[in-house]
Amino acid sequence: MTKDGEGVARDGDAGVPGSLARVLGDVAAERAAQDAKWGMQAVPDGTGAEDAVAEADRARRETDEAGRRGELTWRHILREEVLEAFAESDPELLRTELIQVAAVAVKWAQALDRRPAVAERSNPGEAAAKAVGEATGESRPDRFRAIVDVHVMLVRDGTVLLGKRANTGYGDGQWHLPSGHLEPGESVVGAAVREAREEVGVTIRPDDLEFAHVMHRAPDRVGLFFVARKWAGEPYNAEPHKCAELAWRPLGELPDDTIGYPAAAIARVLAGEPFALYGWSADNGA
């Protein structure tokens, strides 16, 4: 770690230990949620238009002028980076510009987190702990944040409904349960109801969801598994852009190409085991 001329640490944490990791963790969680909802989208870049270069040049001039006037804002900086990316048509150079856009956005989020009012609103407990730490001279690193996902086992006549993933960038060609990540402000029950509706087109009453298993997957995932034996509607492939097919498979005879962790969780559910670790080393209790 090095420091600049003003004594500020240049380790990406903006003088606040754990700041960069916290924001990058939030970015990773948002990216995972996007992947769960839309998959890895294959769409054209749409950059390099003739007027985009002029817009980027104008944004650079506006940023420079704002800096000279002492009126520079994050909006100026990020807008310049975004428009420079829009002006680039070469894929390699475009990638460089996009990384710069992402870096500026992350730094802006860190700047927001450093503002006391924002930090206290986003996590009043941590803000209070920080205040105590400053008063006593003790410090505490940011709390670990896990990514929570929900999985729905639709069970009928000794079989469970599985979907073969496609075009998602994760587990494509393998079988998985209807599942997805928890969204902000959403309960795990609400998420399970939503995922079942979005992926296989059925409506499940919250009271008809039976909690069956929780799995802590290394390094940062917590999966909650629910069993449903009653629902409204006949399951169908509601997301053909992310699922190649649906199939009912015997609970005790899952396909060999089922993704590892849901297969392990289903086995634990059949064994009546409510909790399991997955992917951890022996030193961590797995």
From TrEMBL:
Sequence ranges assigned to domain Nudix hydrolase in this UniProt record: 145-271
Alphabetical list of Gene3D superfamilies matching this protein: Nucleoside Triphosphate Pyrophosphohydrolase (3.90.79.10)
Keywords: Hydrolase
Coiled-coil region(s): none
Signal peptide annotation: none
Cofactor names: Mg(2+)
PANTHER family reported for this sequence: ADP-RIBOSE PYROPHOSPHATASE YJHB-RELATED (PTHR43046:SF16), GDP-MANNOSE MANNOSYL HYDROLASE (PTHR43046)
Family: Belongs to the Nudix hydrolase family.
Protein name: NUDIX domain-containing protein
Native source species: Nonomuraea guangzhouensis
